[in-house]
Model the fold of this input.
Amino acid sequence: MNQPDRQQDLPPPYEIESSLPTRFPRGWFCIGAAYEFTNEPVQLDYFGTSLVAYRGQDSGKLHILDAFCPHMGANLADGCVKGDSVICPFHEWSWGSDGFCDDIPYAAKIPTKARIKSWPTMEINELIFIWNDPDGGAPIKEQEIPLNEEVAEPGWTPWIIRRVPVGNNARELIDNMADKAHFGPVHGLPSVDKFVNISEGHTYIQLQETTHEALGHAKSCATYYGPGYMIHSQSTTGGTQHESNRFMSLVMNAPTSLGSFEFLAGFKYRIPEGMEDDRDAQINHVNEMVDEFADRGVFADLHIWKNKVPINNPILCDGDGPVIRLRQWYDQFLVPVDQVPASMKERKIYDKSEPRIEWPANMIME
Done:
């Protein structure tokens, strides 16, 4: 590695530029597994506000409303569900899934302005999603979360979702898609043989392959659908220390403030033989697998995210991945729809497979 000639005139010390976005990103955000939500109201704290989520008794569909009753300010998450409405615990004002007050037990007339925000939701891939647009726009049809055919295959365990609060902007998590050089120091991968990023519209894909005598050959595909939901599939074959396997994971964020987010990690494994009809055993199996690899898996980044400074002007080298291109992709969700550059729709491929990175043996995950 060539070092600068320190005898020549030196540049001044580099100054990091650090600032946060001034608004929340637009898009679909995953907030958990479908089975985690019932007809018992639950409070969610996202996008700088509080929400209430519940399933309607009649439809079984998940609804999300602003959490506080505009009558006297009570928290609707402390109420109950009747039909497809949530009932305020203070005076029993009833709020329909569309956000309109549909009943006041002691009133002859409902005030015309008795309406709260109803948030668009999706339920797909055994997951729940909420749509956020700072400008109040409806969900964009072509950005709906697609059905993942692998999730729909029989023989998978339920999703296990773990949540961790992180005191940083969510962009710091998104950077991982292009950060080729962190997989050895943080995750213990022995090498990166193939590393390709593909940007197209609201999607961003990472293709990666690595090979090691003990760990075998691993192929993975990770795809972001918008700014908050990434689904990852990996298969391993060969290797002397681990059996070949397939698994899926989720790397997701739901902003809680401009300077914080909830990190949601999801995991799904193939059902082991003998557990086909035992859901509790399947869940325990996934939890054990997650705990076994927690130190080198998706949770390994947490300490970094929690303690790093947001950096707008990173100094990058020729061995880094396409970090700036990734951030340009992410920026489309931070501006109004009519300000998104038309070039974002174009398919762009960034192949950073060379030079091949191989890390010292003491970094390898055994």
Remarks:
- DSSP finds five helices and 21 strands in the chain.
- The two ends are 29 Å apart (CA to CA).
